[in-house]
Amino acid sequence: MILINLLPVREWRRKEAVHQQISIFILSMILLASIFLALWITVQGRLSIERQKLVELEKDKAKLIYIDKEIKDINKKRQEIRDKIRIIEKLQQRRTFTVKVLDQIVNSIPVDRLWLTRLELRGNDLELSGVALDNHTVALFMRRLEASSICRSVYLKNTRRRPIQGHDLMGFGLQVKIKPT
Questions:
Q1: Angle between helix 135-147 and helix 9-108 axes, rounded to 10 deg
Q2: Rounded to an integer, what distance in angstroms lies between the CA atom of residue 65 and that of residue 71?
Q3: How far is 95 from 97, CA to CA, in rounded Å?
């Protein structure tokens, strides 16, 4: 007997192949979509982490800006204090300078032969006026001043005889250039 298959196997296989291809296409689309979704979720997670880091860095930056401002203020105050210290040192040095000048002048005066009536110190210029017994005493005083460590030069401005309380004394005026300190 001859058997005849009346079932449409070829058509059925073709339909099955088409269904299989459609299922593979749909599954690959689902797989592709899930891969894209996984990548998107990963990127969004990293983006979220980076945004949090950015917010933290902005907070740190704000703190550092405040600290930087404080450092600048402190440095400014430090410079002001240094300036004040320099001024105080100059004043202190100038104060001791005047004492040294007066000490040198006192040590240069011939005792009981010369008297100062006026002493004026302006910067490094010193003007002296006084009376002496004679011209030799004034010359001795000038030589002693020139030999002192503070004087750069001594100039005689004037001399003249003046009677003071019945004594004939020599009035004088000197200009002294002081060495800068």
A1: 150
A2: 10
A3: 5
Give the chain's domains with CATH numbers.
89-178 (3.30.1360.100)
Sheet holding 114-122, edge to edge: 114-122, 125-132, 167-178, 151-164
Per-residue pLDDT tens listing for the chain (181 residues): 677 666 676 777 888 889 999 999 999 999 999 999 999 999 999 999 999 999 999 999 988 999 999 999 999 999 999 999 999 988 887 778 888 888 989 999 998 889 999 999 888 899 999 999 989 999 999 999 999 888 899 999 998 988 888 888 889 999 999 887 6
Helix, strand or coil for residue 77?
A: helix
Tokens of 69: 């401002």
Q: Is 116 exposed, middle or buried (0-12, 13-18, 19+ CB in 10 A)?
A: middle
Global pTM value: 0.53
Could you give the C-alpha distances from 132 to 28, 30, 171, 177, in angstroms and in order?
Answer: 124, 122, 6, 21
